[in-house]
Amino acid sequence: MKILVVGLGKLGLPLAAVLADAGHSVAGYDKSSDLVKSLNNRSFYSSEPNLLHLLDKPLDLNYFSSISLEMIEETELIFIVIPTPSLNDGSFSNEFILKTFFDIGPLLKQKQDRTAICIVSTVMPGSCDGELRTGLESVVGETLGKKIGLCYHPEFIALGSVIENLQVPDFHLLGVSDTWVSDLVEQVFKTMTSFAVPCKKMSVLEAEIVKISVNNYITMKISFANSLLQLCDHFHEVNIHTVTQAIGMDSRIGSRYLTAGAPYGGPCFPRDTLAMSKLFKDFSISNSYPELTSKINSDHTEFLVNKVLKFTTKEDVIGILGVSYKTGTTVIDESPGVLLAVSLLNNGMKVYTWDDQNVKVPNFSNIDLDLNQILELCDFFIITRDTQEIKKIYDYLKLKNKKFIDLWNH
Known about the structure:
Elements: E1 2-6, H1 12-21, E2 25-29, H2 33-40, H3 51-55, E3 61-64, H4 69-74, E4 77-80, H5 95-110, E5 115-119, H6 128-140, E6 148-152, H7 162-167, E7 172-175, H8 179-192, E8 199-202, H9 204-232, H10 240-248, H11 269-282, H12 289-311, E9 317-321, H13 336-346, E10 350-354, H14 371-377, E11 380-383, H15 390-399, E12 403-406
Parallel strand pairs: 1-2, 1-4, 2-3, 4-5, 5-6, 7-8, 9-10, 9-11, 11-12
Helix pairs in contact: 5-6, 9-11, 9-12, 11-12, 12-13
């Protein structure tokens, strides 16, 4: 199938690669000419596991920094994978999706054959059948459904495992109103995996609610576990991991993400939780879990800082091992390593950091050391996440009998 992927970012490029690897003819578009150039001349680098391996294969995958009528005429399915930035009130902006519609709309208007447009970007519930549908219909000059179809297919991925998440998903979520669009997209889904994956089809609005709710339920589990950590900290000889592991053995609950330690971070969890909180407020739903979850997460960073300060003195040098928010990525959005480093520095502590992806704390790049330096120099350590050198770290800390807090629960 001829497919166009609009947006070659952290999800868009892996999606394009997986689609091409599944045998489709894929055109990847991004407004960044520098990115497109680096992809075309093979100088592009990414820390995302398995992505470069896929891109090195002889795929029918081509990159462009402009969209032509010929490209649109050949395309049967368009995936829109572009940013929907958070606004001050926590909701997501559709500005860039609408701009994309205005860019491709005149070309779609000239096309005779049918085209399905699939929104992958996370949007606020009500967007696809509201502002986005209205915007697209205004530029193509006709009601959607017959020649142009619009559906919503958000991916459930995590940076550091995007390729695996795309090829081995738990399920596919598809919000759709037209049968022909559903059939077309499902046909593509079946080629992306080596086994049968259930596809949960529903209305577009229902799918929008499901997407944002999944991440909110996960952040609620993480925050609940961290609340229990704070409770157990007031008792002697209580192991929080023993407690959460036992709770997770109940089949109604499950153990995934029910782990205490680091606050949640990254580009999705914090913003999706704030967006859901905004939705609850819009409809005057009191005592919302998302709002409480966000507060617990914010307070947990302060709890950890106070815990470190209790175990250290002003003379101690603190080492933070892991700056990016998780292994396999250089992203630092709401990263526990960054938040803890900045907070401890603001408390007058001497802090150094190390990251296996060479990520640095913004505005404090001078505190970054290599692994051997930081292990020798620091007196107290905070392990924020898994790293490529975790065994070496543990062996050294135990050999030298150095104090540390492990937020990744090894």
